[in-house]
């Protein structure tokens, strides 16, 4: 490569990085920071190649002086860019966690919760009332969910009392997902269809809340851990039999340290949240709410698992393309793109992260929906 082409490539790469840093609409995430560092390494390789070319033309004094001026000029640009990049990265990484609205605040504010995200100021997301939600299935054989909806509306029109329905969604299993305006109206709908010959109403049981207990000794049995938690923390608050019925070990997480994920009834969950720390085997350990929405590892959508996924192609969690997964992605040198945020038609600067990013808008929306489907019981002011 001659000196002219080398200089042209150098300037193109330099301008490309400058655009990424100076763009006021975007905020540099960790993935973008990694991409910037890769591009800076490329610049340094080009700079080294320029020095090698200077040695090749060592016999011509004019060429040497010209190349030295070019190298000195470009070297100053590299140093300025490095300082600028490091300063930008220090200001932006690590990213601040989004300020989540607590469950108590959500109940006080009503059915809409305001959440803050890194790329957006305020986003209002509707939450579901789990006690007012239900599914409708047709008793007769129907072609699709549209016929089920028609039969449901005909049955409802026979009654004089008008019942308000907040939202209705068609399901793939030829049924309907309905959310009534209030839990009382949901009970009325169930009473209307109790003896119906067209549709069947099913009010799903709400999910129980979960907690995670950190740094549990690996050499202890699950039964001993559960019993020790009760003896040291809740023996004066909850009856032993009620405690055993109110707690269940779901699974363990963590590689270096072992953390227990427990499913509890609302009353016991509030006891955990009021403490935030519990005593366990002669030490104090932290406890937090555990809320991780289910995600398919094939299509990367939230709300279902791989075993029931209807997608035919594998989606990549890094580049959002099909045909490969994140472990075999050939586009690691490019900027990442989140497939879930692309599906929600967000802006370009809002999709510049991989699907596993904890600041992902789609992740926090799925997390909020997961919380809205959980029965937390009566809300305590101390939570």
UniProtKB/TrEMBL annotation:
Keywords: Coiled coil. One of its GO terms (molecular function) is nucleic acid binding. The keyword Coiled coil applies. Residues 50-88, 142-169 form a coiled coil. This is Uncharacterized protein. It comes from Gryllus longicercus. The lineage of its organism: Eukaryota, Metazoa, Ecdysozoa, Arthropoda, Hexapoda.
């Amino acid at each position: 490569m001659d000196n002219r082409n080398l200089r042209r490539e150098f300037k193109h790469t330099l301008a490309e990085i400058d655009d990424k840093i100076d763009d006021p609409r975007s905020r540099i995430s960790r993935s973008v920071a990694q991409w910037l560092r890769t591009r800076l390494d490329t610049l340094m390789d080009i700079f080294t190649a320029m020095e090698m070319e200077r040695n090749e033309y060592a016999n011509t004094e004019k060429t040497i002086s010209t190349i030295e001026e070019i190298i000195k000029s470009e070297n100053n640009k590299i140093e300025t860019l490095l300082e600028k990049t490091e300063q930008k990265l220090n200001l932006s990484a690590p990213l601040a966690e989004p300020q989540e609205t607590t469950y108590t605040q959500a109940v006080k504010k009503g059915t809409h919760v305001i959440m803050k995200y890194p790329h957006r100021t305020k986003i209002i997301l509707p939450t579901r009332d789990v006690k007012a939600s239900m599914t409708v299935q047709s008793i007769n054989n129907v072609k699709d969910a549209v016929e089920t909806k028609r039969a449901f509306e005909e049955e409802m029109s026979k009654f004089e009392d008008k019942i308000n329905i907040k939202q209705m969604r068609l399901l793939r299993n030829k049924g309907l997902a309905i959310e009534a305006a209030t839990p009382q109206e949901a009970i009325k709908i169930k009473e209307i269809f109790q003896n119906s010959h067209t549709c069947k109403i099913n009010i799903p049981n709400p999910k129980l809340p979960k907690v995670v207990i950190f740094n549990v000794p690996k050499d202890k049995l699950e039964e001993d851990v559960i019993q020790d938690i009760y003896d040291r923390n809740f023996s004066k608050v909850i009856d032993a039999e009620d405690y055993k019925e109110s707690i269940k070990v779901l699974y363990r997480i963590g590689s270096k340290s072992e953390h227990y994920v427990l499913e509890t009834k609302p009353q016991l969950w509030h006891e955990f949240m009021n403490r935030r720390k519990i005593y366990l085997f002669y030490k104090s350990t932290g406890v937090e709410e555990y809320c991780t929405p289910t995600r398919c590892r094939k299509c990367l959508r939230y709300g279902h698992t791989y075993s029931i996924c209807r997608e035919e192609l594998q989606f990549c969690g890094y580049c959002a393309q099909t045909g490969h997964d994140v472990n075999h992605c050939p586009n690691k040198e490019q900027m990442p793109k989140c497939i879930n945020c692309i599906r929600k038609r967000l802006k370009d600067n809002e999709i510049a992260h991989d699907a596993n990013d904890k600041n992902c808008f789609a992740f926090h929306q799925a997390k909020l929906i997961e919380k809205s489907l959980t029965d937390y019981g009566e809300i305590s002011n101390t939570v």
